[in-house]
Amino acid sequence: MAAAALPLFCGAVASRKTPLTQFSSSSVLFSSLSSGVAVRKRRSCRVSIGRFRAELAVFRNLDADDFRHPLDKQNTVLLRAIPGLNELGKALLGTVSEQIMLLENIGTSVLVSENQLAELHKLMVEAAAVLNIEPPDLYIRQSPVPNAYTLAVSGKKPFVVVHTSLVELLTRKELQAVLAHELGHLKCDHGVWLTFANLLTLGAYTIPGIGGFIAQNLEEQLFRWLRAAELTCDRAALLVAQNPKVVVSVLMKLAGGSPSLADQLNVDAFLDQARSYEKASSSPIGWYIRNAQTRQLSHPLPVLRAREIDEWSRSQEYHTLLQRATPMNSTVKA
Ligand SMILES: [Zn+2]
């Protein structure tokens, strides 16, 4: 089945009722306080970048299954087993809304290239090289909501959209991790299922023959899958950042960052917070609350994503992957 337009709502914990106005051309501005650290282009491939990795490594033969989260694998199998889902998908794909999203995006955003926001272009090209994937187009869009998402329309080159407020919130290295997360969705062919999830969110209840109960069940299944897919793509972010603190810092900033607080945020304290959340929610009442909190979310809670990526960074699987990597002759300052 053809892939279609898909807003991934990455980087934000989107509720299941994420409004279609996500794609409005609102031009409300955030404070333009910058927390970004300029990218420094160097000729040498060995550059000291403080506590972050000194050299980007490229995974030349990387396959999606090399880093796919086990819950993603498991939920993909479950999703494929749902009767009628493909038919529903066909009914939803190719809708006018996809074209509107596509056209509006191109018309209201800045297309990044070698001649336009070249630093950001380089971040994307590097991240794509690390993950062994063709770089999609990258658009920067004016929005006060820190967010990034990927759209893949059948027969067209996929593209990633990053909101301006996210650029302001993150360092360049963190921004590259976000781009890598988005590339992860493309690398893993998440497109079709994400389209289902998002289009269901935006209007499944109006599709003839799809009752509310079925739609709700499907929606829950899809969101369960999507939360698992997010964990996979956080791994893609780590493969590019090659430092778990970069990815955790992104999640921390999405949970409660602001440009003016950027230099005061503490990644280790956020990880401690994640551990205490796990502990608090392990009691029966805690489990109930946590389940209720996450069931309707398209993305796992930031603290849980942080915990998950911290654990994977210590795993044998990750270190074995790192051993397969080879150096790339360029680097980005953290
Ligand atoms: Zn995502």
From TrEMBL:
Keywords: Hydrolase, Metal-binding, Metalloprotease, Protease, Zinc. InterPro entries: Peptidase_M48 (IPR001915). Its cofactor is Zn(2+). It holds the Pfam family Peptidase_M48. One of its GO terms (cellular component) is chloroplast thylakoid membrane. GO terms for molecular function: metal ion binding; metalloendopeptidase activity. One of its GO terms (biological process) is regulation of leaf senescence. Binds 1 zinc ion per subunit. Residues 117-312 form the Peptidase M48 domain. PANTHER family: CAAX PRENYL PROTEASE 1. Belongs to the peptidase M48 family. This is Peptidase M48 domain-containing protein. It comes from Kalanchoe fedtschenkoi (Lavender scallops).
